Structure formats: structure tokens, C-alpha cells
């Protein structure tokens, strides 16, 4: 043992979990280790079974999560070269909404022999999208009844969330539904495995579990959605709430054995990967909008005001940190649009040249695009290739490219797509501001940080100074910060984040002439946004024309 | 000499001239020969001179045209293996509006030593686009004065046409302007070289020379456009008109020596490449719309009614054949849009696969696109990458692609562009019909005929039976038909075309289920067409944003 103390943050992603060892004194990251889930994302058939899964399904095996504790945590400690006895707490974060149906003792139903071949007994990953019909019913009934919580979610509940996923089980496999004692967030399930105590974290419960003002949707509402669903909250969902940064319990002897950490150390309340990043960025003040930019972008921000902002994903009391209103918004396609473009729209000569220069296509195109001045290409695009989450909440929208001429190059179009996503963020920022929720600073974390042109475009197009989170393991760092707060080293997460989190302020600031050009270009983006997003149903109709049903109906 | 008689048609294109030997009895094509212009299109500097040309300039050397007579004609005759004495007439067609400033004897000014280094003394090719300011002045004054001829040209005179090109000379090199005795269409100049007689053909004079109801724009109008321009018509333009299919004169001894043809044989009045194709297609009846499809598409059609149709290029009495109203419309980008896409938007893997299969990229993409059913890709595009000629007459418009998702492939987008040009043709057809000019049949000629998928899409999307012109030298065949009429073998071009021209009727007919899907998709095309083309100025603004002036003005 030494005087130096450490916490461990474990970030559970879609394909793997990563453990990070962090020095409590200053947030220095000593070492990390990654463990890929043995079963990955289960989309075709159940493990060791011939049972085939329908389309849109995405399951996981909860035992894979425990394997991360067994392997990645000890490996990170070993690589860090520290004495495990100096670790004073552990925190976690998870994808959301990922749900595990369990028995009263926490055993996942899929681990019981009788349910091993039942798809609904497995963990349903956040992107298990088949319960759209269930989400539609929930939304219809909620709108008809004028449920007060609906506007807190921008007017729509997602098929990804707790109620849609549970209703799907009841609809399709009532036996599994009745056999499950708790329908738990994986974020809370993993904490349960660590400390033996089931605590629902305030973040998931709020954003994904429709918990508002201390209440869930009523029995009457649920019964109207489906007879037999009325007791879902009381029987399977409701459970004591843990505030973020609180201690959920103490590391059990078994979990201490898995991880190699001292038994009895504090285990922090669970958290969600995007939201926990705010602590890593030390950006918990009102108006600091944190954008976690990867294949998609999640925007999270604390505010001291409560407003109903159209098209946001949700606003939750203490959803990011205790004592603030936590807002969440999102762009459903960002990095995956750039990836699609590179895979589908770049001619051979650019591939050849990129290889010759030893660059990725992204790197090559970005370097060429950086030589242009703002607006030079004469294009404007809509970044809706994966639909639009905020602020239109319409997954049937699609992408648009406007302004092509015979001189337009793939570099022009690539840059136009980078800009389109920046305008998408600006639209979200302006929607917050226009609805009385101020935004002062744009803080970026995530994989897209490495594209410096993209970052400058965001600063120029949004018109805000842009801070960046230097950690490449920001969620795990955020979890480690929560662990330090839970351990009582700091009075709360805010103080812990100030000491252990960090961001580079003003890493990019708007260049005035670019900002002016982008002000003009953004007006065109908004005009196209309104016309395609609110002015008509063209994009929905385009999806129907030529679909088998339409062709059948026409002939 | 034999009993079999022949005519020769010579088609003068942008880069070369092609001579075709045709049997009068049945229009059988015996042989053709091509001669590329030595000076091609002069865009950088004058031949043998350091004089640099401004941007948008496109000149030619008229001596190159005569070289076609000297080389391609004898070569075609030799290849055909006929006795030249059996050739009973020669006809020509030309790009338009291509203008040659000449002395009273027909000598081009550029062939005089004193003007050899003066750019304005050369032939100005149809796509010499620098006189846009002159066209703008002509259009402004015409609109202000309410000139009666303006609606005959869809409301706008082009920078390509006679008056704009002449005014540019007066504005920029008055000495050349005053030295020229005639400003001649190259179509008429080449006939002058063949028969020693200067005759203005009714087609060029009408479509490009603003000759309507036997009159040109008035002296008062021209003076208002520019002082000193008032006498342009009387001094340099007006000249006896030859009807199409008439004999302009007889082959001179000199021209007989160039061509190896018998002196004294009839030389037909000049013609324009698109318009002469109607004879090759034997499609001179009212309502047969002939589309000559290549990099761009020209639509020409005879009608027995005179209407002012918005956005057409022009309507001319006897402009296609004597006794009918000849309509012309156009799509400024067709094949060049497909070419742009293949050059700029197709990923490496498709290049590799096309090479493996020994196909061109166009061929490979077309084959893959043909496997889709109509509307399957969920896309709709606007085919304005080169602007829009008919019916919006706006070269500042640009292309749009709507409906992209992360599943969209380059095959989807390629097919969407094929369809977009078909919808562009449907829009032209519907505009004719809606304005009281019936269209009964769509007849296609030109290089794009070879794409069978494209042809089927046109039949399905336009909803008309589609005939095709089998000749690969349709303009030259049309010119040979005019030669036969001029030689008096037939009473007029109509009769000559019935005997010598041909088209395959109903080569493609609409497939009902495709037509229904395209009816739906066309409604989306129209909605986008209206919004981008008439609803707002977005595309013009996109061209300005980021232009050096705008950036300068902004900062």
C-alpha cells in the first residue's frame, strides 16, 4: 500500500468492456484493458441453439459482462503496476437502454436451463429495435390521455426503452414475462453483481424508465396500453433509486475475487456511458453541452432550468448529476454517414492515392477538404441517412444532397456531409436556446475528435467555442470519478470532476469569415430541414414507392 | 454509272465532320468516313499565336470544315465502292448556333492576314458562352418593350445565339464588327462553299436568328439595346431564306474537285444537326417528339398548331420541315450527368468488378440497376447538374439527390439519375400537352440508345411508346434525305423521309407496374422540381456562398 489512491472505472460498450485505473489525486489515467464479449451482439440465433431470431433483434449474454470484471479489471491493475490494495472504489457505466430479465436473486432468466432457448430471456441490447409496434401503442395511448410525462421526452417514447422492451416480452412470451421478478437495466445489474445490492440508478430510470417527479406511468395508463400490463411497474420495475455518485454498496467477496480488488470497497451507483462522460469532461455546469461524437452523437447537458424542449430525448432531474436537470438530445447518424460515404461514394483514384500516401480514405479526403474555404463547394446536405432523432424525432427521414454540378467532386460532398452534421448540432443548440435552456459551451468527446477539420467546422458552424475531452477512455474515466465520489473522497461528483476530469478549453474557436459563410449556409440547411422534415411527407412516400406492398397494391 | 442513285450527307459536329453515302431508293447506308478538325475547339489561344482567350470562349477555324469536304467525302465514296457519277446530290447539317464573320465573298475574317490575330474574327462555336452579358441586355430590353417574338423562345434569348454573339463583337472589337459584311451561320457558310451561293436556312434563321413571321427584331429595338447596333439586321444578317429541303445551288467546280463528286449536282439548303434528325427518323408528323440523346438531349417536334409553350427553346415556322411549326426544347444535362457520376461517385470495388467482367462501368452499373424494380431504391433526383434548359430555363440550377440511407448504393443512385432525366423529358412532354401541343410518340436517336435499361425507363416514366432510330449516323442520314429532296427525286422532305428514313416503332412500351410506380415517383420529382426550381432561390444562393466576392463582402 502507498499514500497514492486509485479508483477503477469500467465502461461496458456494445462489443466489449474496458477497465481504466485512475489516480484519485488528479485523474491521471494509469492503464486500461479491454475484454471483448464472447457472444458479442446476438442477432442470428441463440448461443448453442438452433433458435433463429427475427430481424431487428439484438441480444446479449449477461455472463459476458461478468467476464469483463474477471479479465479486464485485473489486467488493467496489473498493467498499471499498482497495489490493488490502493484501489478505494469502483464505478461503472453501460450502454442504455440494455435490459436484463432476472429472478429475484438477480439470476438472468437465460441462465436457467428452462429458459435457455427462449429469446426473450436474454439481455436486450439498446439497439434491439423490434418493439416498435409496442412503442407505437405506448405513444398513441400516452398522447390520447395527455400523459404529463410525454413532453419530457420530446413527445415520443423510443422502441429502445424499458416499457417497449417489457411489453414485447408480455406480448410474445408471457411465460418469460411472468417468470421475471425484475426487469433490470444492465447498468444496474452489473452493480448488483459487484455489491450484491439492486439499486436503480436515477439516470436510466429517468431517461429510459419514464420516471418523472418520482413517479412512473400509472397502472391505469398501462392497463389501457394492454390488459395485464397494469402491474408492470409495481411488480417488476419499481425499486429504490440511487443518486448518481452515491455508494450502491460494497464489493462482495465474490466480486473481489473476480476483480482482484479489496472486498468491501465502495461500488458506485450505475450510470450510462454518455451521461457519465460529462464528469470526465468536468462539464457539469449549466449550459455546458457535451457531445459524444462517434457513429452517432449523444448530446447531454446540465441545466438549472426545466423546460419542455421539442425533439429532445429526455429531461431528467439528477439524470446527469444530482441537483440539476439533465437534458439529452441526439443525432442518429454522424460518423456512420461519413463511413457510408467513404464505402459507397469515393472513386477508385482516391483509393489509389490514399494508399500511395499511406492515409486512410477519411484522412485523405479530410486533408483535401481542409484546403477549401467554407461554402466553396456550393453544396448543402441533410444528415438524415439514419433518420433524425433531435429535433424531428423521425426515423423515416433520409439524406439529401443539394447543389451538385458536373464539377462537384467527392471531396466537396464529403465536406458537405461533415458540415451537415455540424448544422444538425447547431439546430439542437438553437432549439435548446430558443426554448429557454441556455447553451454556453460545446464540449466534444468521442472518436471523431481526431478529425481536426471536423472540429473546426463544428466551431465555425455552431458558432461556439469548442472544448475537447483529451481522454480516449472518457466514459471509463467518468465512472472512475463517480467511484471516487461514492468513496467519499470528494463531497460530490461535481467536486470530484473538478479534480479528476478535464477538457481543453477553446481548443477550436470560430474563425469569423468561416462563421459568416456558415451562417448563410445554415439558413439553406434550415430551409431544406423545414421543407423535407416538416413541409411534406416526401421521404416517407419515397420509402413506400416500390415497396412490395405498394407494388402489389398498385397492380 | 449505274441505275442506282446515291446522295451524300455531311454532319458537322463539335470535334469532327462525318460523311455518309446513302442509297436513294431505300435509305441504305453504304459507308461513312470521319475527319477530325485540325484545330478542334479553340479555347486557350489562337492558332500560331500568343493571343490568349478569356474563359468561356470557344472558337473554330472555318478551314477545318472545308477539310472535311476534301477528306471525309472522298473517303466515304471510296469505301462505299460506288461510282461518284451516281451521286445526285449533297446535303449538310451543322452544330448551331455556330457563327462565321465573313467578307462579302464569303472569306472568313480570320483568314485575312490583318485579322488573323483577332479572336473575334474566328468562328464562334455554339458553346462559346462569353456573351451572357449581351444576352442579358437583349432579354431585358425585349421584356421591357414587350417584343412579340420573345414568347416564341420561351421568354429568353440564349447567349449562344446570333444576336448575342454579334453584339459581343461590336462591344469588344468594333473594327472586326465593321469589317464583316455578313455574320453567317456555319450551316450556311459550308453550303456557300459547296455551291457558291449564300442562302440562309429557315431553321437557323428562326431558332437562332430571331426570325419570326418573316421579320427580325426591329432597328428601334436594336438601337435601344446598343447605339450603333440598329443596322445589324439590314447590314449584316438579312439575306434570302432557303426552305429546308430546297436546292441552295449547284456544286461548284472547286467543290467538285474537293469532294470528287460531279460538278453541278444539287446542294441542299443548310440545316441543324438535331432538326435534320427528324427526317432520318421519318418522324415529321405532328406530335412525334424526337429526342436526340447524348451528353445533353435536344427535343424537336413538328406540330400543326402554334402555341407559346413556357420554357421551350423556340418555335419556328418551317423550322424542321416546310409547312409545319417546328418546336425545340432541351435538357442541358443527360449523358454528361451519368458520366460525371461514373467518374466521381463509384467506389473502387465496382471498378474492379467491371474490369473483371470486361464491362464498362456504365455497363456494369446498368446491369446491376436493371435487377431493381421501379422505385425500389427510395430515391428521387433532380437532373440539373448542368442547369435546366426546358422548362425552367435557368443554368444556375444544380443537381439534387433525395432519400439516401446508410443502405443506399452507387447502383441505386445511378438508377435514380437515369430516372431523373426520364422525368425531365416527361416534364417537357407534359408542358407541351398542357399548353395545347399534343405529343403522341417519343422517338429516340443518339448515343444513349445503346442503354436498353435507360430506354425502358424512359418508356415507363414518360408513359409513351418509344420508337428508336437505328442509324448511328442519323444526322448525316437526315442530311442525305434533304439532298434527295433537293435533287427533286422526291416531291418534298416528307416523302423523301418516308422512303429513306426509318425508326423501329414500339421498340419499348411502358410496363404497367413500372409505369404506376413511376407515376408516384414523378409526383415527388415534380414536388422537388417546383420547390427548388420555382419555390425559392436556394440553388442560386448556394453558388454565391463562399464565392470570392461573397467572402470578401462578408468580411
Terminal Cα separation of chain A, in Å?
79 Å
Mean pLDDT of chain A: 96
- List the total number of helices of chain A: 20
Q: What level of helicity do the residues of chain A show? A: 25-40%
Commentary on this structure:
Two copies of one chain form a homodimer. In chain A, helix 2 packs across helix 3 and helix 15 crosses helix 18 (512-535). In chain A, the strands form seven sheets. Chain A has a seven-stranded mixed sheet with strand order 15-16-14-13-19-20-21, sandwiched between helices. Chain A has a four-stranded mixed sheet with strand order 3-2-1-5. A two-stranded antiparallel ribbon of chain A has the order 4-7. Chain A is globular and about 65 Å long. Chain A is built from 20 helices and 21 strands. Chain A is α+β, with helices and mostly antiparallel strands. Mean pLDDT of chain A is 96; it is low at 551-555. Chains A and B meet through helix 11, helix 12, strand 18, helix 18 and helix 19 of A and helix 11, helix 12, strand 18, helix 18 and helix 19 of B. Strand 18 of chain A pairs antiparallel with strand 18 (399-404) of chain B.
Amino acid at each position: 500500500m502507498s499514500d497514492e489512491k486509485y479508483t477503477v472505472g469500467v465502461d461496458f460498450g456494445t462489443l466489449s468492456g474496458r477497465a481504466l485505473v485512475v489516480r484519485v489525486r488528479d485523474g491521471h489515467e494509469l492503464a486500461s484493458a479491454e475484454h471483448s464479449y464472447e457472444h458479442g451482439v446476438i442477432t442470428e440465433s441463440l448461443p448453442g441453439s438452433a433458435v433463429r431470431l427475427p430481424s431487428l433483434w439484438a441480444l446479449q449474454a449477461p455472463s459476458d459482462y461478468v467476464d469483463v470484471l474477471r479479465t479486464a479489471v485485473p489486467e488493467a491493475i496489473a498493467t498499471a503496476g499498482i497495489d490493488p490494495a490502493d484501489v478505494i472504489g469502483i464505478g461503472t457505466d453501460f450502454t442504455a437502454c440494455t435490459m436484463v430479465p432476472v429472478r429475484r436473486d438477480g439470476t438472468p432468466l437465460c441462465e436457467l436451463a428452462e429458459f435457455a432457448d427462449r429469446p426473450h430471456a436474454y439481455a436486450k441490447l439498446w439497439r434491439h429495435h423490434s418493439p416498435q409496434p409496442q412503442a407505437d401503442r405506448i405513444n398513441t395511448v400516452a398522447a390520447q390521455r395527455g400523459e404529463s410525462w410525454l413532453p419530457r421526452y420530446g413527445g415520443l417514447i423510443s422502441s429502445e426503452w424499458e416499457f417497449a422492451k417489457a411489453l414485447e416480452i408480455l406480448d410474445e412470451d408471457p411465460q418469460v414475462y411472468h417468470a421475471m421478478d425484475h426487469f433490470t437495466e444492465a447498468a444496474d445489474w452489473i452493480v448488483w453483481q459487484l455489491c450484491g445490492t439492486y439499486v436503480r440508478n436515477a439516470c436510466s430510470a429517468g431517461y429510459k424508465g419514464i420516471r418523472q417527479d418520482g413517479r412512473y406511468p400509472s397502472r391505469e395508463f398501462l392497463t389501457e396500453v394492454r390488459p395485464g400490463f397494469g402491474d408492470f411497474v409495481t411488480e417488476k420495475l419499481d425499486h429504490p433509486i440511487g443518486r448518481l455518485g452515491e455508494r450502491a454498496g460494497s464489493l462482495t467477496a465474490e466480486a473481489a475475487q473476480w476483480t482482484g480488488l479489496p472486498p468491501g470497497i465502495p461500488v458506485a451507483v450505475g450510470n450510462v456511458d454518455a451521461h457519465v462522460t460529462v464528469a470526465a469532461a468536468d462539464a457539469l455546469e449549466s449550459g455546458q453541452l457535451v457531445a459524444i461524437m462517434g457513429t452517432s452523437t449523444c448530446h447531454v447537458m446540465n441545466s438549472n432550468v426545466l423546460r419542455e424542449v421539442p425533439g429532445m430525448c429526455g429531461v431528467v432531474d439528477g439524470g446527469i448529476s444530482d441537483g440539476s436537470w439533465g437534458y439529452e438530445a441526439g443525432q442518429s447518424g454522424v460518423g456512420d454517414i461519413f463511413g457510408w460515404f467513404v464505402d459507397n461514394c469515393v472513386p477508385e483514384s482516391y483509393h489509389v492515392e490514399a494508399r500511395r500516401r499511406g492515409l486512410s480514405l477519411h484522412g485523405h479526403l479530410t486533408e483535401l477538404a481542409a484546403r477549401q474555404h467554407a461554402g466553396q463547394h456550393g453544396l448543402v446536405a441533410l444528415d438524415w441517412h439514419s433518420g433524425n432523432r433531435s429535433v424531428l424525432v423521425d426515423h423515416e427521414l433520409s439524406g439529401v444532397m443539394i447543389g451538385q454540378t458536373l464539377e462537384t467532386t467527392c471531396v466537396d460532398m464529403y465536406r458537405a456531409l461533415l458540415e451537415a452534421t455540424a448544422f444538425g448540432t447547431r439546430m439542437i443548440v438553437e432549439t435548446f436556446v430558443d426554448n429557454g435552456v441556455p447553451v454556453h459551451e460545446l464540449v466534444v468527446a468521442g472518436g471523431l475528435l481526431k478529425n481536426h477539420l471536423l472540429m473546426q467546422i463544428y466551431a465555425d458552424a455552431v458558432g461556439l467555442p469548442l472544448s475537447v475531452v483529451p481522454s480516449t477512455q472518457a466514459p471509463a474515466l467518468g465512472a472512475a470519478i463517480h467511484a471516487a465520489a461514492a468513496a467519499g473522497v470528494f463531497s460530490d461528483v461535481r467536486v470530484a470532476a473538478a479534480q479528476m476530469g478535464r477538457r481543453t478549453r477553446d481548443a477550436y474557436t470560430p474563425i469569423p469569415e468561416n462563421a459568416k459563410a456558415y451562417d448563410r449556409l445554415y439558413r439553406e440547411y434550415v430551409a431544406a430541414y423545414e421543407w423535407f422534415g416538416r413541409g411534406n411527407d416526401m421521404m416517407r412516400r419515397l420509402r413506400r414507392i416500390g415497396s412490395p406492398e405498394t407494388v402489389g397494391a398498385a397492380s
